[in-house]
Every structure is written in C-alpha cells, then in structure tokens.
Design a protein that fits this description.
The structure holds two protein chains of two kinds. Chain A is α/β, with parallel strands linked by helices. Chain A has 17 helices and seven strands. By secondary structure, chain B is an all-alpha fold. In chain B, 67% of the residues lie in helices and 3% in strands. In chain B, helix 3 packs parallel to helix 5. The two termini of chain B are 16 Å apart. The chains are: A alpha/beta, B mainly alpha. Chains A and B meet through helix 1, helix 8 and helix 10 of A and helix 1, helix 9, helix 11, helix 12 and helix 13 of B.
C-alpha cells in the first residue's frame, strides 16, 4: 500500500541540532556591513532615495479621490503627465490638491473606467492622452493590478504601506527597478533571442518617483546628453513594434467606451477634460504620422463633448523641449503646469475655488 | 498578514516580547489567541466569524462525541459536524464551481437555466483550518484521543497563527499538549527558529517571487503556444516556484512557532529528490497526505479489501486531494494524474519478477523478487539512482501543467509545446536572463534536494562550523533584502 508509507507525525528531530549564537551575530554584522557599504556607495554615485511606483502607492492615492471637487483634481494618463505636471506648482497656483493616478507605459482607459464605475467619484478629472498608449488594446496588466490591489487591500497591507514609507524614504538601495536582484540582472544586458521583448533599462536619474507619484529627471540626467540618447534608443526599440495603429471597429469601440465613461462621470456632476502633453523629435513625427490629430484627438473631443488642451495650440507650451523627446525636465514641468492652470482658469474649463488661489 | 511583510515583522517582534514577559501561562495563551485572531483578521476581518463558529461548534460537538454513550447519537453528531464543516468549505470554496457545473449539466439536458454568477470571496486558509477541526471531531468520534479540556486550548489549537492559513495541518496530539504547560523558547530554539524563518523567507521571497515567478507568470500568461525551450522553462519555473512558495511558508511557520517555543510538524522533505511517486508523497505536503491517508484512504478500506479496491481507493484519495487544492477540474486532473502514477508504480512494484542471482559458491540461480520503479537492489541515494529521481521530477513537472493552467485547452497546448508539437504563434517569449535564472535555480534545487534528502537543514547546520553558518545566514538575509519583494501572497493561501 502506497500511501501508508507517509509518516503521520513529525519526528521532532528539528530540536536535536545546534545553531550557534556566534553564527547569528556574525550574520547580523555581515548584513549590516554589506548594506552600509552598498548604501554609501550608491549615495557616493549620486543616487537618492525615492519611492517604488507600485500598486501600493497607486492604491494609496486612488483612495483619496473622494474629497470634494473644489479641493482637488485627479490626473490619469501615461508617463508624460507624471513628469509634466509639477504637483507643487499646481497646488500653489490652484490651492487644490493634485491626485496623480497616471501609470507609466499604460493606457488611462483602465483608470477612466474604474473611476466612471465608482459612484462616489464626482470630482474633476484630467485625462492625458499619449496616443500610442491611449488607443491601444488593454494589454498592459499594470493598471488592472493597481485597481485590483486597491479594491482588495487588506488591513495588513495598509499597515505595511505605512511602515514602508519611512524606510523607503531613507535608503537609496531600496529601488526595485534599479537595485533589486531582478533590476540588476536586467541591467547586465544579456543578449536575447531575436524577437524577445527587451528589458527596458532606463538610466537611474531618468525615473525618480516622488511619494506624490510625480516623476522627475535628476539634475545629472538633465545635464547628460549621453543619458538622453540612452532613453531615445529605448524609444527606438519600441518603434520596432509591428502592431499597426488602432483603427476601424476597434477604434470605434474605444471611442464609445470612453464616451460612456465620461458621460457617467459628468452625469454625477463631475468634470472631465483631456490634455495632450508635449513630445518632440522622431517620437512626435511618428505620433503625427500614425495617429493624425483629426482622426484621433479631435474625434475624441467631439465624441466625448469634452474640452481639450493640445500643447501645440498654446505658445507657452508649444516651445517646450523634451530632452529625450517624450517627457519634460522638472524646470519645464513648472512652466507647463503654470500654463495649464492659466488656460484652465482663463477658459473656466475646470471650476476652482478662487478664494486663496494665486 | 503574510510572513514576508513589514506588518508581520512588527507583529512578530511584539509577539516575542509579549510571550517572554513574566506573566502567567494563561495570560500568554490569551495573548497568543488574540494575536492569532489579529493575524487572521488582517486579511478580511468579517471572516473571523467563520473561524469562531467553526471553533465553538467543533469544541462542543467534539466533547459530546467523546462522552455520548449512544452510538446512533454519536453518529448523528458526527454527521452534523461534517455537514457543518464541509458545508462551509463547499459554500465558500466550491459554491461557484458546483453552480457552474450544474448550469452546464442543465444546459446539456436542454434546460435553459442561467442564474447570476455568485460573488463569493474565499476566506483565507479555510481548507486548512477545516481539515484541522475535522480531524479533531473524527478523532473524538473514534475516541482516538481525549477531548481538549479548555476552550482556550482548543481555540489556540485551531487558530495558532503560524499554521492557521497554510498549514502545516496539525493534529490535536501534536499541538494541544504543548498548550497545557508553559512553553517558552530556549535560546537554542530561538536561534533555530530564526534560522528557519530566514530560510523560509529566502525560499519564498528570493527563489519563488524574485527568480521564478516572473518567468512562470509570463509563460502561463501567454496562453502556452511557444517553442519547447520556452515551454519547458515556464513549466520548470512553476515547478520550482510552487515548491519554494509553499515549502517556504511551511519552513517560516515552523521557524516562527519554534521562536515561541512550539514545535509544528514538518511539511516538506526535499520532495524533488523523491525516487518514485509514493516517495514523493512522503515528502510533499506531508501533513495533507498523511491526513488524506488517515481520514480518507484508510476509512475507504485502504489496502485491506483486495487489489482492485486498493487501486480505486488510491485514485479516490488523489482525486479528492486534487479537488482540495481548488475548485476546477484541472486540479482534479492533477490529482488523477498522480493517482495514475501511483497505480503504475504499484503495479510494477507488486509484479513478481525473476532475476538471476549469484550464490555463495558462484553459481547463478533464478530468484523471485518484487518489482519496483526503482530496482530494489539500489540503495537510497546512490549516484546511479539519481536518474530515477530526475525521471520522477520530470513526470511531476507534467502534472504541474494541469495544476497551473486555468483550462484543459491551455494545459494541452502547453503539453504540445513542451514536446515541440505546437508551432509557436510568435517570436520567442522568454529573455535569456530568465532562461538562465530558471536553469541555475532548478539545477541547484535538484542538487540540494538530492544531497539533503536524508537529513534536515538544522542537522546540517549543526555540523557546520559556526562561521560558515553565519556566512550562509548573512547571504540569505542579504538576498532577501536585495530582492525587494514584500507582501506577495503565498500561492497556497488560495487553497
């Protein structure tokens, strides 16, 4: 009989062994030595602590969308709005909070649907459009991970988030993208078989992520054209994607879905506007070629009956240059945000409580 | 709450302090019980009510089962307890599955029945604590052990946080006596426990989550139409992930309990070094397989009712074992495949074969011996028996395809891809770094299992020089912290 060989009870042999206290002390000393050296080395290289932009941080801000509309504005989009909106400037000029819910490398349609289906969300919403991502199939799992995490957050996960904040803000080596085991293995650039989706190794200073989820380029990155070229080369890799731009019925379906989501928010008294943040160089050329403005941007505004701010239409934004063709420097993010607030106030496209605003 | 989270680090530190305060044993037990409820409620507080219900009902029913002299009444009580425990498990875990199959059946019969899909949330660890309480009531019915005297001890037996949500599945005689007298970890137990906790976290955080989960998720998320290299890498990655994830939890649980002075049963004994499938089930999820043996296989008749019934009993046990893991026919198929493996192994083992043997004076004579997948003259852990362990491992990898795939269609696609029978639908899937990670981790895992198959970590650590243990321990901790993966749930929580 086969299963009767299985022992029913543990032999308590675990207790017959000896692990020395000296071993524990040695382990502790070695761990402390290693991480002290590692942290000092990274600091010496100019690396500063930032926050991992994971579902935990996203969910934290997703939970803040319910404040009254005159106190805050929610932003969704892809990476551009995370760089281009300077949250401090926005808050200073409008005297309202900016809740950044955009997600890098993904379509904001996931978040739009999530907010539209949330009966308690009745606030102001800015939807930034990066055509290649906005009008794409919902392939990137990141937004759904974030939304799912938010909906099923456990009390233990909330406590872990609170405990994590001071730890992550203190240590530069706690950067999952760059200095985790997988991050470091990825940066070895081991040659892949042709056709394998590449590991996108952005320079450290390109994607600093603040606690408020604003992305920033470091001063070193802004000053270093080699690093700009490294990022441009990554955009070049993405150019190789053979997927054609969305058109025909799939595009109609996306337009209908966005229209329905926007209508739901407006029906509850919410406000929605679209923005198109700057891009330059070959990135912009490709976008204009693949996603001509009348067929995508103009149609989107028409279908949804929403206002939109296309950066090229406004002199204060049109001349802004992205060092790697797709995102603004921190300095230009202030310029962009100032112009954005000015347009919104001037055209009264979003309602702000004017008391106390600058 | 998961062991690999900051919340648990804080919780455990507080628990260690509280458990070592100069207060009465009863107060310490109350502390442990409250802490266990907090540990469980940290997932979803309302489900604590189910845990209470199960605890209270089984405590009183268990006592009545033991003391009730009338057999008919005892039977009735047992049936009520089984209906209560299994009914709760069926509703929460299998409610949707049962309804889905019922709808499918009615539609096949031509009845147009389309009820709303139930939105049932699965309480964490319900399969584990249901099996824990079930074995108590069955033991009481059979009078195999005495009823637990106090409600506090029984509640702690059911709820003790290290084993509560993912085992090891404990039996009353293993844990209850430990609550009767004061238990405080000795310095040695604390050190051993911390080493085991570090090892368990290393297995979960570094090996499962950091090095293998990404590859397994990418492959199984792709639908499985790939070349054989990607398919094998994906399946091997999951084979490693599921082991490191679950054995990591068990090792952490044993370590945590040991730090508090309690001993939990061992749940894994280097299963990928198993030579044959009965050997595998002596090494994989030991507390579940022994539970199934004692409370299902043997009550079904075991091997006492002839060969045919033995085969049937083995298959029933494995099919139910498969279903225990999840509400999907793919889990049943996983169990069924293991059942077939055990059948084949038993058939070979039971078949008498004639072999030539050399007598003392050098002449050859024909002898009859029992056949086995493993030739009987191969002593355990000789280098030449390693290929049998490898064969066992590869056949077990095939079963994981059914375990991990959401549908049979996908499982078949993956099996076809593994043998190169499914033309890839696109370019190669996995990065070279992923292939290297899987190759290195799985090779090291198999080597480690092979050399450790007859010993334990603590025994081995006890024989090593203190500085070597310290060095290895520091490497484990450094890699855990460098992996920067916290809070990921354990796979077995969903079971």
């Amino acid at each position: 009989m086969l299963l009767t060989y299985i022992p029913g009870f543990l032999n308590f042999s675990l207790m017959q062994t000896q692990v020395s206290g000296k071993s524990a002390i040695l382990a502790l000393v070695l761990v402390l030595l290693f991480f002290t050296s590692w942290e000092l080395y990274l600091r010496h290289k100019g690396v500063t602590p930032d926050y991992d932009d994971g579902p935990e941080l996203w969910a934290h801000f997703r939970g803040k969308v319910y404040e009254s509309a005159d106190k805050q504005t929610v932003f969704i989009g892809s990476s551009r709005i995370k760089y281009d909106l300077d949250i401090a400037t926005w808050q200073n000029l409008t005297n309202t909070n900016a809740i950044q819910l955009a997600m890098v490398g993904s379509s904001p349609r996931h978040m739009l649907t999530d907010l539209a289906n949330d009966q308690n969300f009745k606030g102001k919403l800015v939807v930034d459009v990066t055509e290649v991502l906005f009008f794409s199939k919902r392939g990137n799992p990141k937004p759904d991970e974030g939304i799912n995490y938010y909906k099923h957050r456990t009390p233990a996960q909330r406590v872990s988030f609170i405990l994590d904040k001071p730890i992550e803000s203190s240590f530069a080596f706690l950067n999952e993208d760059k200095y985790s085991i997988n991050g470091m293995l990825g940066s070895l650039h081991i040659k892949d078989r042709p056709g394998v989706y590449p590991f996108l190794d952005f320079p450290v200073g390109f994607e600093l992520n603040m606690f408020n989820r604003q992305n920033m380029m470091s001063a070193d990155f802004v000053a270093d054209t080699n690093q700009h070229n490294q990022v441009k080369a990554i955009w070049g890799l993405l150019k190789g994607d053979p997927t054609p731009p969305m058109s025909g019925k799939p595009l109609d379906s996306v337009m209908q879905s966005v229209k329905a989501d926007v209508a739901k928010i407006k029906a509850r008294g919410g406000e929605v506007i679209f923005t198109r943040t700057p891009s330059n160089g070959f990135f912009l050329m490709a976008e204009q070629h693949m996603y001509p403005r009348p067929a995508y941007w103009d149609r989107l505004l028409k279908e949804t009956s929403c206002k939109g701010i296309y950066y090229a239409d406004y002199p204060a934004m049109a001349s802004l240059q992205c060092p790697e063709f797709s995102h603004l420097t921190p300095k230009d993010a202030v310029v962009f945000t100032t112009a954005l607030v000015s347009i919104l106030k001037q055209d009264k496209w979003l309602s702000f409580n004017t008391a106390g605003t600058k | 709450m998961v062991f690999n989270s900051y919340t648990f680090v804080a919780f455990f530190a507080i628990m260690l302090v509280l458990h070592n305060l100069p207060i009465s044993w009863k107060a310490k037990k109350v502390n442990l019980l409250l802490a266990s409820y907090i540990f469980y409620a940290a997932w979803n507080p309302p489900f604590i009510l189910l845990l209470w219900l199960s605890t209270v009902v089984d405590f009183f029913v268990g006592r009545a089962l033991y003391t009730q002299p009338k057999k008919a009444k005892r039977r009735l009580l047992l049936v009520l307890s089984l209906i209560g425990n299994l009914g709760m498990l069926c509703f929460f875990k299998y409610g949707g599955f049962i309804l889905e199959n019922f709808v499918h059946l009615t539609n096949v019969l031509g009845i147009d029945f389309h009820p709303a899909k139930p939105n049932i949330i699965l309480p964490a660890g319900i399969s584990f604590y249901t099996f824990t309480t079930l074995c108590y009531t069955v033991d009481m019915y059979k009078k195999k052990s005495e009823p637990v005297k106090s409600m506090l001890d029984f509640s702690l037996f059911v709820t003790f946080f290290p084993h509560l949500v993912a085992g090891p599945i404990v039996r009353p005689p293993q844990l209850v006596p430990q609550f009767e007298h004061e238990h405080k970890a000795t310095r040695q137990q604390l050190l051993d426990g911390l080493l085991l906790l570090s090892l368990g976290l290393f297995m979960k955080v570094v090996c499962a989550d950091t090095l293998l989960a990404g590859t397994a998720d990418t492959f199984f998320g792709s639908g499985g139409i790939t070349g054989p290299l990607d398919a094998w890498a994906g399946v091997l990655a999951f084979s490693g992930q599921i082991f490191f994830d679950f054995a990591g939890y068990s090792t952490s649980a044993i370590g945590v309990a040991m730090c508090l002075g309690f001993i939990l049963p061992q749940n894994f004994l280097y299963p990928y070094a198993a030579i044959g499938f009965s050997d595998f089930w002596r090494r994989w999820h030991i507390t579940l397989s022994s539970w199934l043996r004692d409370y299902l296989y043997i009550p079904l008749g075991g091997n006492r009712e002839g060969k045919f019934r033995t085969y049937i009993n083995i298959m029933i046990t494995m099919l139910i074992g498969g279903l225990w893991h999840g509400a999907n026919w793919t889990f049943v198929a996983w169990g069924g495949l293991h059942g077939i493996y055990l059948w084949v192994e038993k058939a070979i083992r039971d078949r008498p074969v004639k072999r030539l043997a050399v007598t003392a004076n050098g002449t050859h004579v024909e002898v009859v011996e029992t056949a086995s997948v493993v030739p009987v003259d191969i002593p355990r852990k000789r280098p030449k028996s390693f290929p049998y362990a490898l064969l066992t491992f590869l056949l077990i990898c095939v079963t994981w395809v059914f375990f991990r795939s959401p549908t049979f269609t996908e499982a078949w696609r993956i099996l076809h891809s593994m043998v190169g029978q499914s033309p890839p639908s696109g370019p190669p899937l996995l990065a070279t770094a992923d292939l290297i990670k899987v190759g290195v981790v799985i090779s090291l895992m198999l080597i480690f299992h092979w050399f450790m198959r007859n010993t334990t970590v603590l025994k081995t650590a006890g024989k090593m020089p203190w500085w070597a243990v310290g060095l290895i321990w520091s490497v484990l901790l450094i890699l855990i912290m460098l992996s920067q993966q916290t809070g990921k749930a354990f796979i077995y929580f969903q079971f």
